[in-house]
Amino acid sequence: MADLRGMTWDHPRGFDPMVATSTAYAAAHPGVTITWEKRSLQAFADRPISEMAQTCDLMVIDHPHVGEVARQGNLLALDGLRDAEMAALAAGSVGLSHPSYEIAGRQWALAIDTATPVACLRPDLLDHVPKVWAQVLDLARAGRVGFALIPINALMTFFGMARNLGYGIADQPDHLMTPTKAQHVLGLMREITALMDPRCLQMDPIGIYEWMGRQNQAPAYSPFGYGYTNYSRAGFCRFPLAFHDAPGVVEPTPRGTVLGGTGIAVSAFTKHRETAVDYAFWIAGAACQKGLFTASGGQPAHAAAWEDDACNALTSGFFRNTRNTLNAAWLRPRYDGYMGLQDRAGDIVHACLRGDAGERATITALDQAYRESRL
Predict the structure, then answer these.
(1) What is the pLDDT of residue 1?
(2) Residue 217 is part of which domain span?
(3) Distance (Å, rounded) from C-alpha 226 to C-alpha 262?
(4) What parts of the chain have a pLDDT lower than 70?
């Protein structure tokens, strides 16, 4: 008998496919059970991996944690175990989804879910997709734009707009970003924030999509928000949403949005290593990703699903419509200490957007947080 315990995040996209795939795996492997627990997205992000690894066999994790994971040794390195399968997963990666869990030559998780900020619209309220920021501003001036700006999403938008403009991030010893370039991006963000409903400052992407997908009076367009295929599927919400490539700031290219998504990791302390590893490779593989995983509400990281006609029909073309954005997404820093920067920097940018701090003070605070994160 092998009774495994897993931890994931509390949303249909994060929980339902884990339950469905575990049920199928157990049916094919008599004597095996995998039970999944879930926590809110914020609680999931805040709970240390070192703590989860002591009590769980399997964990769904975010790739920015891999720097600390590599140092702590709480997860099982998955490279060198199944070389042919690992090579197939690398070849099937959508953008940098697979390599995002690799650091210092070791693979700490397998990508099973991928996301990046993409555009979203209500087809009944908007019949065209903005390609550049000037067009987004025109809609915002008409009161038709809203997007997630809680601290973490404010920071991801700050990073994404900077990378779209070709601005370097965390590549200098003393500055998170060149001050004049940081001021340019903050100015762009403050301009559009002033044109939107203040509620956006208190919403994450799920909140925005719930608003757009379930209420009559709602924004027609969101330029940046981590994509959720659930909201494009028939029957999930009152007004199914359509997802498209993100706009460019100056040029009509979606490059630079910040890669998200999740990977499945195996605890270094599991007593069922062979079973846990086998399940992890199976759920990350092409067949499961484009089949049961997507069908049960998952948002796959394997190109086989993104290119599949049935997967696109199920999600109103979500995968093909946003593939360019995913392929051009930026991989944020993953050094040991980055998570501390991310937690502080989100609050710093958010204060600027609220009007509680000026741009120069914001840049100074960001640089200080960056330097301290590298100590």
Answers:
(1) 82
(2) 117-257+337-373
(3) 12
(4) 41-47
